[in-house]
Amino acid sequence: MAAMTSTARPLLNRRLAEFGTTIFAEMSALAVSTGSINLGQGFPDTDGPEEVREAAVRALRDGRGNQYPPGPGIPELRTAIAAHQERRYALTFDPDTEVLVTAGATEAIAASLLALLEPGDEVIALEPYYDSYAACIAMAGGTRVPVTLRPHEGRGSATAGHSFRLDLDELRDAVTDRTRLLLINTPHNPTGTVLTRAELTAIAELAVERDLLVVTDEVYEHLVFDEAEHIPLATLPGMRERTVTIGSAGKSFSFTGWKVGWVTAPPPLVSAVRSAKQFLTYVASGPFQYAVAEALALPDAYFTAFRDDMQAKRDLLSAGLAEAGFEVFRTAGTYFITTDIRPLGETDGFAFCRALPERAGVVAIPNAVFYDHREAGAPFVRFAFCKRMETLQAAAERLLKLRQY
Ligand SMILES: *Cc1c(COP(=O)(O)O)cnc(C)c1O
User: Fold this and answer.
1) What are 324-357's pLDDT values in tens digits?
2) Closest Cα to atom 5 of ligand 1
3) Ligand 1 pocket test target in 133, 137, 188, 189 with most atoms within 8 Å of CB
4) 91, 282, 293, 315: least surrounded by Cβ within 10 Å?
5) Contact 378, 348 (CB under 8 A)
């Protein structure tokens, strides 16, 4: 060890130095040591459909997928992904050349960026952004250019209520001659924003005009609430040929531990992403791929019930947070509610989240970790509601301690 540490050079390389530790590990440890209800990390505390679990057991017992599955994913799953995109969105993809199965959406994001970026390329991402985006852009040697979603009091039906919106002029101004790719996420984690057709149309027009590639993370495609509608970017004019669309069985079927994700895109893009993917995991999740193929063919009733259940959870936690004194942004999709802590007399989300377990026995995540412009995210705090109703009820009761009379 002495030899390794005698040099001044840090072990973690320069590209990754700023990503040393994640807030999730710190907050989850705090949840355990204080006996708090953990609304920090976004994973459901109830498993997905029993018949899908049983399909995985059957595959494992029958010896399907216990050895390396085919590199692009098993044909049954690629066919099911293509059929799902066709059934839901009238998007047609060839299962053999336009679909790629990945180790969760996480690998799909990593492989897409590693494959499509040259060092120095700029990537525009919506800030606050999912934490792996920044790390993967860095690993690819790219430069991230955040465009900040800002609080907005909406009046039209699609943007009604207080939500975070994209400033289309700011997006347009962020494009330079070095911009290679737009990294979009809708429904958006952590704000719960679902981009409207008008917003997506403006993004599409910009991508076509400036000849940009688009990677769109649509893992929450089935979790859109009220009258919000998920519109895949690939359905807009001129977009199918330049867009990599990413989905996840973890998020759509509540099996986040299975790590089954996918990419749909035209053949040259899938082929490029596959080139990177084959040297990351090569393949993953063999037996689970068979189960997810069955899950994707579930009737619409499954998807409706899943959404209704999650919407009821959103309603319960939103009401509880409002009653405790937070300003609550309207969540139109995802697992998450973003709040503003300023009505509680607080301004620093980091300090607030570090103190919250002691004060109220609940763990949340400061949105600032999802920002380059940390000050823009300072007063915002994210709560996950993909938990049992009784857990959310208990959290809401605990949070009443914060209320100022
Ligand atoms: C959870 C999540 C992912 C990762 O999905 P996995 O399939 O678990 O790898 C990617 N993007 C967003 C926005 C997420 O919230």
Assistant:
1) 999 999 999 999 999 999 999 999 999 999 999 9
2) 105
3) 189
4) 282
5) yes
pTM confidence score? 0.96
Where are the domain boundaries for CATH 3.40.640.10 in the chain? 50-298
Strand locations in 178-270, DSSP E?
179-185, 213-217, 243-248, 261-264
- Are residues 346 and 19 in contact, defined by beta-carbon separation less than 8 angstroms? no
* pLDDT tens digits, 179-191: 999 999 999 999 9
Q: Is the CB of 321 under 6 A from ligand 1?
A: no
Distance separating alpha carbons of residues 145 and 143, to the nearest angstrom: 6
Residue 395 structure tokens = 């959290």
Q: Is the CB of 261 under 6 A from ligand 1?
A: yes
Which amino acid residue places its CA nearest to atom 1 of ligand 1?
A: 251
CATH homologous superfamily, domain 14-42+301-403: Aspartate Aminotransferase, domain 1 (3.90.1150.10)
Question: Does the CB atom of residue 256 touch ligand 1 within 6 A?
Answer: yes
Atom number, ligand 1, closest to the C-alpha of residue 249: 7
**CA 219 to centroid of ligand 1, rounded, Å:** 6
What residues contact residue 334 under an 8 Å CB cut-off, 6+ apart? 42, 187, 188, 189, 190, 192, 220, 223
Pair type for strands 143-148 and 150-154 = unpaired
The secondary structure of residue 231, as a DSSP letter, is: -
CATH number for the 50-298 domain, one of 3.90.45.10, 3.40.1280.10, 3.10.20.30, 3.40.640.10?
3.40.640.10
Cβ-contact 254, 291 below 8 angstroms: no
Q: Is 104 in the pocket of ligand 1 (CB under 6 A)?
A: yes
Most informative mutation of 132, 245, 251 for ligand 1 (most atoms within 8 A of CB): 251
Domain with CATH 3.90.1150.10 in the chain: 14-42+301-403
pLDDT band at residue 2, thresholds of 50, 70 and 90? very low
